[in-house]
Amino acid sequence: MDLLLIRHGVTDWNKQKRYLGHTDIGLLQSELETLDGLKKQIYGQPFSYVFSSDLRRCQETLDYLNVKMSVIVDERLREINFGDWEGKTYDELKCDANYQEWLNDWEQSSPPNGEAWSEFTSRIDLFLDELIKRVQKEQKNKFPIVMVTHGGVIRYLLLKFYASRTLWDFPVEHGKALKLSLIWQRGEWICNSLSVVPTQESEN
Known about the structure:
Pfam family, one: His_Phos_1
Helix content: 25-40%
Keywords: Hydrolase
InterPro entries: His_Pase_superF_clade-1 (IPR013078), His_PPase_superfam (IPR029033), Phosphoglycerate_Mutase (IPR051695)
Active site: 8, 79
Protein name: Alpha-ribazole phosphatase
CATH architecture: 3-Layer(aba) Sandwich
Strand content: 15-25%
């Protein structure tokens, strides 16, 4: 089973390095060209399914990529909710004791009025369980399964499928995709191949 994990394009808050979770803002029109290499690479490719977060930045990314398939929108593919820290920068938060505690132990603490790591991962796990059952029932895994989603979601999926050892092993860039080839081994899906789409060579 192959997954094509696409991070959405660039937003204004991304450019300003502001925490962006559930806040629903669109893409920067001036940054759409960052999607051109990926758009060219996947043009006309067949996919088994196309899933997307319901947030505007993912929907607009998918529209720009012009994937010719019906899209299954699922809010469980949203980024983690940063609560009271939405829209804030590191410099604005660095003196906050709760923020420092979260930086030091993000698996156990959570943003005020935001989402705990366990809540975040649980909803993604539930989505994956349903996806795998769907694939098995419909026997549709001949082509890659696309997910247009967010940096935090992609980083967690890399961890879950043993493609990385920490959240920060691989850069998860806007407008690029990571292709994971998964195999069933010892009762679970694990990644046995990881590649970036588009490659540096194909962009030149």
